[in-house]
Amino acid sequence: MATTVHEPPKVEPRRAPGGPGNPGNGGLRNLVPNDDSLPAVRDYAPAPSRTGIWVVMAAITMTFAAFTSALVVRQGAALDWHHLTLPRVLYWNTLVLLASSVSLEISRRRVAVFMGGPRTLDLKPARWLHVTLFLGLAFVAGQYAAWLQLRSEGLFLATNPNSSFFYLLTALHALHVLGGLTGLTYVLRKLHGVILRRSTLDTFSYYWHFMGVLWVYLLLLLWMRL
Amino acid sequence: MKAHYKTAVTTCALLMLGFGLLYSTHKTINVSAAAGGTITGTIKLDGTPPHQKPIDMSKEPACAKEHASNPVTTETVVVGPMGGLRWVVVYLSEGLDAGTASQVPSETPTWDQKGCQYIPHVMALDVNQHFKVSNSDPHSHNIHPLPAPNGANHEWNRSQPPGTPPFDQVWAGQEVAIPVKCNIHPWMHGYLAVVKGPTGVSDANGSYTISNVPAGTYTVTAWQEVYGSQSQKVTVGAGKPTTADFTFKAK
Amino acid sequence: MHDMSAHAAAHHGPPTSFIRKHIFSLDHKVIGKQYYGLGLVAVIIGMVLSWLMRIHLGWTNAAIPGLHLLSKTGAPGDVMTPEFYLQLMTMHATFMVFFVLTVAPFAAFGNFFLPIHTGAEDMPFPHFNMMSFWTTFVAFCVMILSFFVGDGPTLGGWTQYAPLSAVGSVAGPGQGAGVVIWATSLAIFCLGQLFGALNFIPNVLDLRCKGMSLWRLPLPTWAWFITSCMGLTSFSVLMPACILLILDHVAGTSFFVASNLVINDQLQPHSGGSTLLWQHLFWFFGHPEVYIAIVPGMGIVSHVLICNMRKPMLSHRVLVYSMGALAVLSYMVYGHHMFVSGMNPFSSLLFSFPTLLITIPSTIIVLIWIGSLYGAKLRINSASLFALGFISMFITGGVSGFFLAQPSIQILLHATYFVVAHFHFTMAIAALFGIFAGTYFWFPKMWGRMMDETLGKVHFWCTFVGTYAIFMPFHYLGLAGNVRRYSSFPADYMQSFVGVHKFITIAALFTGAAQLIFFYNLIHSRFRGKPAPDNPWQATSLEWSIPSPPPHDNFGGRHVVVYHDPYQYGVESSTGDYVMQDSPEQVKTEHEEA
Amino acid sequence: MAKFFAVTILVIAILSAIPIVRNTWHPVEDISTHGQAIDDQLSETMWEAGISFLASQILLAWLIWRFSSNRAGEKTKSFPGGAMGLVAAAFILVGVEVLALGIFGVKAWANLYFTPPGSDAMPVQVQAGQFAFYFRYPGPDGKFGPIHADKISEASQNFFGLDPDSDPDAKDDIVTAEMAIPVNREIRLLMHAKDVSHSFYVPALRIHQDFVPGLDLQIHFTATKIGRYEIVCSQLCGLGHYNMKAYLDVLSQQDFDDWLRKEAAMQ
Question: Which of A6, A12, A29, A167 to mutate: most C Cβ within 10 Å?
Fold first, then answer.
């Protein structure tokens, strides 16, 4: 067990930011250069936020997995499951959310170019982020519209198990989306201050795309009769 | 024609005046009458009473032993000799003047738990009248009154270990009647009738007495846990007893 | 979130104001101490509650002076009512399991030492780390609140089985507001623990210093890493369960309440809910939670033992793999809590085999400990005594697992005191011994002062003997069919057990009193103890190569580089029989490879 | 100090084992046909667990005794077997041990849960509610009347919510607070929960089964010994949990018939 060490172990060379298994700057925490100069911004990507977002997504996945199993069990538990027809607006919301992911990807490309190539600000990556922000808000508004429609049909949280799960899952998802949107405003602020770190944008986009995937999953779950 | 009309009007006027006077004098007499009258009566059951199931208390050996000689039955309909109906609450549902209604008797009755039964099975209380809950058994009891939800009275649920002092309770609003359960002994069941003004509960012979009733005209209501309520109007004169009998029909 | 990391991390010297330094501090060490303090408060509450319960079980209708202060209706004439007993029992379990066994060995020591062990200056997301503590603290306060709201805390037991927990106050005192508060508090608690995992995992994966390969991490850090992975996947299941439970209460939904339930002659308004759903959700969290309580203790104890044996464990990796195996298996065995719960009897059998298998990694861990003791130069001090005591306790607790893993035997033992004995020996006592060992070992580093050894040893002897005196008899009561969660024993065949309960009560009061020695030692040494050197135990891991207590950024700006495996004992070096992890000195190892 | 500790561990281990060896505390006598397998399984496990317990505690004590004396200059040694030896031991000893236990245990479990009740098994229904058991016998017609939850009333002792006036099947149902069964006759027990989860625990019968609200379960057993035994609830069901119990009377067929007649008369 006790290995003899004859020469200092070789330390992995700092890899490109975002590369797999980034050693996290060897435990040094000067993630942002003291002078917020752009060239420096490209390095010093903190891997922790990339790992962290996976942790967050794992937790969210487990939570919704638990709700899923509850839904499955509850559907089998009794015959009082009245399968409700989903409001049509949900399908539009889905498109909106997916579109927001696309616009986010576009701006990500632009930021990459912006950081790599000649740093001319006329690429306007921010514009596409604003599009994402707008679409995200539109999605939440759409969900709200869906709730209003169900209410008008006399379906409330406690009306029957299906409506309970519908409100519960959509509301929790909307909550997570709103959380993402606050993150997005933060990204925008950083971008305008020209001190945006690549990892910040990457982390956010992981989360945002995950929200999209999660929503599609929830839609299928609520749509199909198990 | 016209004359007739005039006479008619005058007679009516006179009559009304007369009644008016009568009524007012009546009032004055009433006020002067200090000690009110009493309402008495018997409550009978017409028909064969439903079978009262015997209660098996083997779960609680102490109580089972206590009732070994005289087995206990349910007390939903208890008929005495000559068909007298027991545990009927009789109270004045209408006609009470505010003064009497708001009076709260000073004595605090006790609602005892003995041999895994509520003693008495039905107890009448005045609104805001304090009463004590005591446990005479060698084991814990639980007292769980279930008043109508969102009324003036609130549900409570507490246990009383043996040898602990009686605790004091009070009800805020009129309610006939609040069912009371023991959660530890499912067969233990009783009623607390909370009413404004004087009340009576019928005894083993089905007879009851409501005392200290100010003279006046009242609606007397009798409540029985299975057969519900019956009412009749009675007029109580100063000091002299009035009778009001009730007869419930066995379903 | 990374803005936070950036801020805390980057250009931020030590805070100056009292608030930032001691209350809303971003420093993982302060947060670790805060968690430790929270654990202490919770353990005192839990202990006092258990005393009251024990007194009631021994002398059922005896008055306990002042008891009425704890509850409006629960103690008429200072005599405990059955419902108040159950409320105390539920709160004892809740405080102990969540706010002591989860908080102290994992969150407290983990926060303080994990970043140091990885050679990092702080957690990756200090703001989340701070939120993690304060969220947990809020959860704690909410739980305390339930003593003062409505008719007291819930009496449903920490497992809080539906529908008793879901139908509301009609089912008994505390089942209305009490349950809602309980579930809310735990949902908040889960959030706090998820924030914790959010820091622990990236710290281990990304913030290791130069030369610190994963296999060079000390065992406690491995344990904390595995634990936070478990916490990540189990607390995120308890939270939705709590949300569903709260909805059944406040929103009139029917997730857990079946149709046609009649309580106190009242037909319940719910319909169609599934009774077993709660049990499945709860135990999917509940069983990993048991290992969340134990595994950090295992890591800490190994750490302490190695240092006091002056030799490394037989195999670092086997221990790590075994702890990992425990973690993985713990998700497949939760059904053994439900053998007779009306689950399909076939799935009971399915669950019984992984449950039996989980004894293998546990046995491996114990054998590695025992085998490593062979040929050791054992140092006896408070820390190592508690570490060895942990092994003895864990053996005892593990052995009773043989019984409870088998459905057929659970027909006799399910829900009896045998189960109580089992989980106290494994989860509760073993974890607490881990906490004690860790405290006596790390106190010098955490507070820069030595603890009093004599008091420590006295504390150990009382605790060790007392604990066996309390929990061993539980096995016998269980075998004889004494059902747990009874506030007294009116059943004829249980009358004869009361004598044993009296004995256990006395032992419990004695052992509890002995803990006062520990609290005194803790507080006294904190202020009056003699100053601690950097490395009082001649230990090797990184926390001992920095001052005690460590400076704000742990390594004083030094770019620490690691050259050795964590436990280089029994070697010949300039410092003696050990070499620090970060010393470049070349050493020759004495004993052969394991 | 260390030697004293070693001795303490030894003493505690032996003291703990004494009541088990002397069988001071043991399950109540088994009166069921299926219970023997369970008891065998229990003693089987007790042997293996007891041996592992004593062995490892003694080993621990010896190691502490032996290796706590720090003789100067003595070097630390490593366990000759090495880690892999121990791992192998764990797999072979414990793995085989517990798997064997598990596999033998299946028998005990199976003949309680995987064998259908005989066609002549006598049906009895038990209803668990806060905080008492009530039992129902189908009467001469052999049919249970349906349960009307809205008619359940403890005040009038209608625990099962029966409606004899409209359900002919309910007319002759016999509801009792004690459970009486004829000896050596297979019983098919239908378990119904009135309110929350409860459990039907009869140590003497080696029967332990939870009531699941909304899901009526069935178990079957045969009692082989006349006597008065106890049924207790082992699933926390509320404040009266500790006092939720009923008596089980195992009677001769003759006594049972008389008892049933007496109960029928009291309905």
Answer: A29
